[in-house]
Every structure is written in structure tokens, then in C-alpha cells.
């Protein structure tokens, strides 16, 4: 895995499942992060090859609950992001998946209370010793690259100091979301403070925050000095933001996402959640499309809504054929 000059799909809970990652990759993302998965939950999972779908699934033991689905096609670009507060637990969870992914990343930026109260996400930013312990343990024991994603600390000097400590653990790259823990998504990302981290480190820094148009990739690169850029909301709202030829119509992107959800038999809740996020950006959920998405109970319902019944039927009738041609 190479971290220089990359366009990166950010980790996004309930959004970054297999169809969305493949969608972003199709439009030009080089590296695609999965949604954050908590180590406790992943430790209850076992690996199953799903011959019906053509995927590799990590399923909660004793259930059919797929916690993480991946496939051969994304093997060299998918990053498994984990929430953790303990080095040994993180390692044991990572060992379950590391042969099927390109890298393992630790979330050190999530400000949500479920994360922070469990000592995970942004709570780690205040515990550099624990960060060191987690990252060195993973680094020593895994054959895949290990990275982490942080937010900015109170002062730029503090962020740089932490970033230097992280670099010393031997991680392959560091993603920096240019907001502080207390910042809201509408607050502008502080690209200049990402630049301070880039200037202080030798490892690749992945700059993250407020990239919404393809031109923004060059703008954030110039402003920060980072050669790689990570995008969350800009990709959620239109995954073709990665496309060098410019964004496609969001209607077309949305339909392609529905097709990929059908092909990979995505969890209906995740597909509905992502569609609702896209619809809310451009329209509103009270209009007929939004209402119909909310009412949909199956991927077949969504296929009908988006005029993809024939594709749905074809995929259902020809699973093995479709898998063979992928
Ligand atoms: C996120 N973000 C996030 N970060 C992370 O490390 N793990 C995660 O699972 C999530 N989940 C998530 C879900 C959704 C819907 C959004 C919008 C964001 C934060 C995200 O990766 C990113 O750091 C910020 O959104 C800033 O980037 P943008 O949106 O300005 O490009």
C-alpha cells in the first residue's frame, strides 16, 4: 500500500459499506476506508466465504449479521477502520481481518459520546501512551500497514507534538481531520493546521476536511503540502467527486449505488441510510422519492423505485454467472 498522491474515501459509519466503497473506487478513489467497526463487536465475528454473493464476510457468530463485507476486487485498496481503547483487543480483532484488507486504521477522532465514553475515538487524543501502545502492538504483529486518523488538538503545537509521537510508532501514514474535537461539521476545516503537521513529519499525511469539488483536491494539497487527500461528505453527496472528468449527475450516481447495493446484497438499512443522506442534500425526505425510500423494506423495493427491476431480476437469477464475470 502506497500513501503518496492518493485520493481517499473517508471512513463513514453506515455509509462506507462494500457497494459505496466500490462506487467511490469506480469514480477514481485510490484508497477506500470502511466504516468504523468497534473491536468488541468484531471479536465476536468469524470469517465466511460467501460463494453466493462472491464476497468475504465477517459475521457475528451464531447469527447471519454481516458486520463487514469485502471482496477480492477491493483487496488492495480497502482499509479496515477500528474503534478501540486497548492494544491487545485491537490486535486480536485486526488479526481476524488483516489477510483480507490492504491496511488497518485506528479511529482517534470520533467525538460521539458512545466512542469517547468507551475510551475510544477522540478520547485517545488525550492518552499518547495508550496511542503508542496500540499502534506499536499492531505494527509489530501485523503484516499490513497500520495507520490512524486524528483530529486537531487545542493548539497547532500540541497537534504537531502528538503527530511526531505517532510517527515514531512506525505507522505508514497519518490522516488528519482539520477540525478540533469541539468543532461542528459546519465549522471550516483548518487547512493551515494540517500544513503544520505535514511540515513536521516525514511519513505521508492524508489531509481531510471540506473537499466538495474535484478542484478542491488541488486546493487542499497546495494549502497543506499533503500529497494525499481524504473526502467524506463530498463523496457521500456525490461519489463521482473523485472523477477527474468532473462530477456526474447525482441521479446517475444514486442509481449506480442502488445497482451496487443489489449486486453485493447490501444491508437494506445501510442502503436506505445512504440514499436518505444523498436525498436530504439535494431535496427533502418529505417529497415522494424520500417517502418511498423510507417505506422500502427490501432491495427489491428500491430496485423498483429506481427503475432497476430488470437488473435486480438478472442478478437474482444469475448470481453465479455475475460472480464469475466480476
Ligand atoms: C464520519 N466521520 C468518521 N470518521 C471516522 O474516523 N470514522 C467513521 O466511521 C466516521 N463516520 C462518519 C460518518 C459520516 C456520515 C460522516 C459525514 C463523517 C468523519 C469523516 O471521516 C471526516 O473526518 C469528516 O467528515 C471531515 O471530512 P469532510 O466531511 O469535511 O470531507
UniProtKB/TrEMBL annotation:
Q: Which domain of life is it from?
A: Eukaryota
Name of the protein: Uncharacterized protein
